[in-house]
Amino acid sequence: MKILVLNCGSSSVKYKLFNMDTHEVLAQGGVEKLGLPGSFLKFTQPDGKKVILDKELPEHNAAIEFILSVLTDDKYGCIKSYNEIDAVGHRVVHGGEAFSGSVEITPEVIGKMVECIDLAPLHNPPNLKGIRAMSALIPGIRQVGVFDTAFHQTMPDYAYMYGLPYSLYKKYGIRRYGFHGTSHRYVSKRACDILGVPYEEQKIITAHVGNGGSIAAVKNGKSIDTSMGLTPVEGLLMGTRCGDVDAGALTFIMDKEKLDAKGLSDLINKQSGVQGVSGISSDMREIEAAVADGDKRAILALNIYNYRIKKYIGAYAAAMGGCDILVWTGGVGENQWATRRVVCENMEYMGMKIDVQKNEGMRGEEMVISTPDSKVTIIVVPTDEEYMIASDTMDILGK
Q: Which residues does the annotation say bind ATP (predicted)?
């Protein structure tokens, strides 16, 4: 079975084509600067060579049609016709309370996704455009939606409710939903497969950290809490998002800076986080370089970033009554060994001991980085959300 996975953003379309019979990635790449001058398709060939094709792509239909034309191209393609694609799996950001798992796309499902647009106005509309584009380009193609929020629908009400009037929950669905669910689900399960332990009997903390980031508490195979909330702003310090902040501080800032709702949204989503604190960049590689040069604000930003991760790990260990496995993933979790070391330092009281030598310099590999006598297994697992989406698609359509 050949499954195309699409991740449609407002200005990008990422894709991977899988042969699920052989677990082989046949093609992968993405359109960038969609709808903007200078748009292009960048993809990786089987030999690892990167190819960039410039083309003006005004909207998602044109972008996906261009991707399909390259997949079937005599020079760059890996399939002879669209008909070789058996199904399409879509990353969908917000499923609200309507979806606790992945589902085949139907008119009713699309209607529910439209109802969730208010909860993810920047993400769900392009996700829907991708679904509609595929329906137009390959009529009758079967499609599956895999929701970022679905894995966290197992949270108990006392974990997902805010201390706001209950009427606002009933009226607008104001509650914690959480994100990165596909990644948290994949790496928590994959860690147990690597370690040879039963998934349904473990207390796992998954740290998906990068430019965006979230921590999840996974107990006996189910998410019981996660750091992101109604939106992806809450929780950790991120590249440009502020993470946890006193709501009273926000109303104070709105008053002093004369900000409307959009102005506040821009402040907390695009001007804050590591970039806002450091004044340098949202890229952690640039922050680490500035730290090495002794830049005080870069040092402060990195300290806040690391401290928030450590604090959530401690909180979720308390929530679960302990921790068996700590999983690192995401751009920083997989590659920034210094952050892993700093976060895991002085955690021996809860049975967590990092092997400094194994950890140092280790990037992007599946590897246990705890000491043999550590009661908590610390492991790095590169995330593979696209494979999880393809797997869900195959399972659902197979039924």
A: 14, 208-212, 283-285, 331-335
Q: Which domain holds residue 66?
A: 2-147
Domain count, the chain: 2
Which tens digits make up the pLDDT trace of 264-292?
A: 999 999 999 999 999 999 999 999 999 99
**42 residue type, one letter:** K
Distance of CA 69 to the CA centre of its chain: 28
Q: Which residues carry out catalysis?
A: 148
Residue 7 is labelled as binding a ligand: yes
Q: Is 211 annotated as a binding residue?
A: yes
CA atoms of 25 and 16, how far apart (whole Å): 7
Q: What pTM does this model have?
A: 0.93
User: In the numeric block, which tokens belong to residue 335?
Assistant: 């590659």
Number of neighbouring beta carbons within 10 Å of residue 204 = 28
Is 286 annotated as a binding-site member?
A: no
Q: How far is CA 317 from CA 155, 162, 217, 296, in A?
A: 15, 21, 8, 32
d(CA 198, CA 167): 41
pLDDT of residue 47: 85
Task: Assess if residue 170 is contained within a domain.
Answer: no
CATH number at residue 296: 3.30.420.40
User: Does residue 120 carry a pLDDT above 90?
Assistant: no
State the average pLDDT over residues 79-104.
95
Cβ of 396: how many Cβ atoms within 10 Å? 18
